[in-house]
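Support request, please re-run this one:
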Amino acid sequence: MNRTHLHGVLLAALACFLVGGSFTANSLLGDYPYAGGQALRYGLACLLLLPLLGRRGTAPLRTLTARQWGRLALLAAVGMLGFNLAILAAERTAEPAVPGVFVGCAPVVVAVIVPALAGRRPRPAVVYGALLVAAGAFAVQGWGRTDGMGIAWSVAALCGEVGFAVLAVPVLAPLGPKLLSAAVCGIAALEGCFLGGLGVLTDRAEWLRMPDAVEAAALGWQAAVVTVVGFVCWYAGIQRIGAERATLFSGLIPVFAAVTAPLAGTGGYGFAQLGGSLLVGAGVALGSGMLRRSASGADAATRVPERTNTRPRARR
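Re-run finished. Output below.
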C-alpha cells in the first residue's frame, strides 16, 4: 500500500470515526426543530469552510455546468437532509438498529453501482469485503422491532448513504474536497430553510428557535467537527482510494458508535459487538487493499484525480 492509498484509508476511517461518535450529539437534539437544526448546522459549517479554501477560493464553482449544479443540489437533498430525515422518520416506528442495518449495506450497493456507472465489472475483493462489512454491521447492531413504514424509511436512508458517496464523484475532481464540502453545506443550509418555511406554511410548526446551551454545544460539534472535518476527510479519502473502497469504512460507523456507547451510558459492548467489529475490520482490510503492499495501475485508475492548476474539464 503506497502513501497515497494509506492517506486515503486513514482519512476515510477518521471521517467514519467522527460520524460514529456523533450519535451522542444527535440524541441531545431530539427536541430541536429538524429543519432549523439542519440549516444552522450546515450554514455554520459552510462559513467555517470558506476561509480554508485557499487562494482560488470559490472560483472553480464558475466552471460548473447546470447539470453539475443540479448534482450538488441533489447530493445535499438526498445525501444530507434526506438521509438525516429518513433516519428520524424510520426511528418513529422502528428500533434504531433497523435503519442501521440497512445503512450498513451501503458498501455492497456502492461496490456494484460505481463500477457499473464506469462501464466495468465490480472488483471481487471489494464486493467480498463489502459483504463482510454488512454482516459485521448487522452483528454489531442486531435487529429490532419495525413495520412497513420503518422498512421503507430505512431503505430511503440507505439511498441517502449511497448518494452521499456516488453523487459526489463527478464533481470531486473539479472542486476538491474542501470546496465540495463548502458548496454542498451552503446548498443544504438553503434547502433546510426552504423545508422549514414549507413546514410553517403547511402546519404552522416552529422551525427555528434559539438553542439552549446543550443544544448549541451539540450543533456546534456537529457543524465544526462532524461536518467540516468529517466531510473534508471523507471526500479526501474518496479522492485517493475511490468511492468503492472509501464506502467500506462506513461499516466502522456502528462499530465506533457501539464502542463509545458505554462511555455515554447509552448502551453496552458485548460479544456480539466484538464479533461484528472483527468482521467489519476483516471486510475493510480485504476490500480496501490495506493488506497489499502497493496499489496497482488498475487501482490507481479508480481514484478521483487530484485538482490541478489548469482549468478542469467539465464531467458529465
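Confidence is low (pLDDT under 50) at residues 294-298, 305-316. The CA atoms of residues 210 and 216 lie 9 Å apart.
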